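User: Good morning. I'm curious how adenosine-5'-diphosphate would be positioned relative to this chain. Could you predict the structure with it bound?
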Amino acid sequence: MADIDKNKSNGSNLPKGNKKNPGGVKINPKFNLIYVYGFLLLAFFVIQYMTSGGAPVETSWQEVRNTMLKNGDIDKIVVVNKSQADIFLKEASYEKYKSKLDLGIGSPAKIGPHFFFTIGSVDVFEKNLESAVAEFGEKSKVTLTYELRHDYFTEILSWLFLPLVLLGVWFWVFRRMSKGGGGGGNIFNVGKSQAKIFDKESRVSTTFKEVAGLAEAKQEIEEIVEFLKNPERYTKLGGKIPKGALLVGPPGTGKTLLAKAVAGEADVPFFSMSGSDFVEMFVGVGASRVRDLFKQAKEKSPCIVFIDEIDAIGRARGRNPNMGSNDERENTLNQLLTEMDGFDTNSGVIILGATNRADILDRALMRAGRFDRQIHVELPDVIDRKEIFMVHLRPLTLSEDVNVGFLAKQTPGFSGADIANVCNEAALIAARKQKTKVEKQDFLDAVDRIVGGLEKKNKIITADEKAIIAYHEAGHATVSWLLEYAHPLVKVTIVPRGKALGAAWYLPEERQITTSEQMLDEICATLGGRAAEELVFSKISSGAQNDLEKVTKTAYSMVCYFGMSEKVGNVSYYDSSGQSDYSFNKPYSEKTAELIDSEINEIIRTAFARAKEILRNNAEGHKKLADLLLEREVIFTEDLENIFGLRPWGKKKEEEKSETPVEGQKLDFGPEIEKV
Ligand code: ADP
Ligand code: ZN
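Assistant: Good morning! Here's the predicted structure, ligand included:
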């Protein structure tokens, strides 16, 4: 392969030399070749024409018998391939038939054959000939010979046709594939790694300053920069430089950004590649790309190799042995493992991987000596969000009413990428309104838009539907306002947005653990919409589907994951390792399955009754709220306070909030909207 590449580059170098030396006698080799081919082809046709002359003229057996044989004009007849009789005239008789034979170009050569006719079978032809000779006598006797003639040209062509077509198709497919992989259209590059390289010429300019928050992750990763900058400090003491680190965290939290910052700060070449870049349809390509990537990296060491979305190749092997379709990915992974083992610890190549699914990665990938460090990159909390906002607000022209702390509070559950998006969206909204500065309201609109989709003011909704939506949303608002552990409400609208007809915005607290009371209150508030419909209109609508889905999921996780059902007990059927296939066989018996179903049902039924109870006891407030919604289309916390009074437990909560986060599993409820 390398040879072919070399030849190619030589070929393209040659014309350059000619340009420098126009008077030179060198002939462009490409042109030369075309001329040679042209000449050969021409010569072929000329020879063909000269030797065989034109084709003989077609005639029929009757004509041959009644004229030529009768007059004794025929010298010999050659039966070609048992199907055609070529007739050679006697030299003396040639003149007689000249008028028939003289056709200009393409007329038969003088030596013959002059005529031909097609025969059905050789036997019949021989019999006919014999009888004719018997009839016309001695002078009509002819020499009869047989000949098997190959038409090599057409024969070879027909033989070559199919392979040529196949070859053409194959080349075309190959070219397209390698182009798709970014291989620049050269089929010989298919096995080359597709990594983007940032080195001296195209430097990564990202620095740690641009990465806001993520204090712990930054600290760990800064150490890697230290390794690369002065490795002696560590090797002198006998320590080994880590080979790789895995950045784990939800999408958009800045993993790529961190990796880039490492490269920018350490001032070393940076190879960037996505896990899916390795995988192609061809067997062996992935492994070959891995090999090539490491070869390049070793040449440029010290350097950093960054593999984004490493789960695309690093997924645990052999989970579905009978599927058999993942062989290529496994080969790629095996090669990656081999390469990571293969290079010298202190060679100065550090592999950074990023994934949001560390649980599905192959265990072999994470053992010491490969990705021996795992760096967790979590969704930012209030303080981190404030810092991220500061980074992304820098390029915007802001009005005075924009408060970074307030924005950070309004965006729980947002990732760094979401925040960058909010800032950009706010600027666009402000620009659309011809403002000179981006105002607070623009940011709020941007948040709403990102959470709930675009407002659709002109969706057609009948008055009846509107009333149902208003009471439904007011139901959510009322119930959640009056439940201690439900998320505090921010606003409710009945303006259609995205796919939803109405929405309630909550500001979830950032919890590290969630108690069963909180979950039950959550379920109750979510059922408030349907409960309101049933109480007010005595009928229910399809609008609560989204609510019910959420409720079912929460109840299911309470029973099956968090051990919150007394009857089922303290068991969790959650599989955080992702190793076993629960989807095919459940880890519990039929009896337990029934119990789980009945427990889920019980939770939801109780919560629904509670929601109805609350609404019945506060029917007046609920109606006021619904009327206000119908009138104004949007209501805020203040309106709820006016109707129901302050939430008695609101104050207490504020104080509690400053507590240190509790260790444990993080339940991510994110910013929520209730859809009708
Ligand atoms: P990931 O690789 O984790 O999916 P990225 O690193 O690609 O996420 O982040 C996408 C964008 O989000 C970044 O380009 C940056 O603009 C923004 N971003 C994410 N996290 C941060 C952060 N901690 N500080 C500043 N910007 C961030
Ligand atoms: Zn609802």
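The longest helix spans residues 152-180. Residues 211-214, 251-257, 354, 388, 391, 416-417, 420 surround adenosine-5'-diphosphate (ligand 1) (CB under 6 Å).
Let me know if you'd like a different ligand tried.
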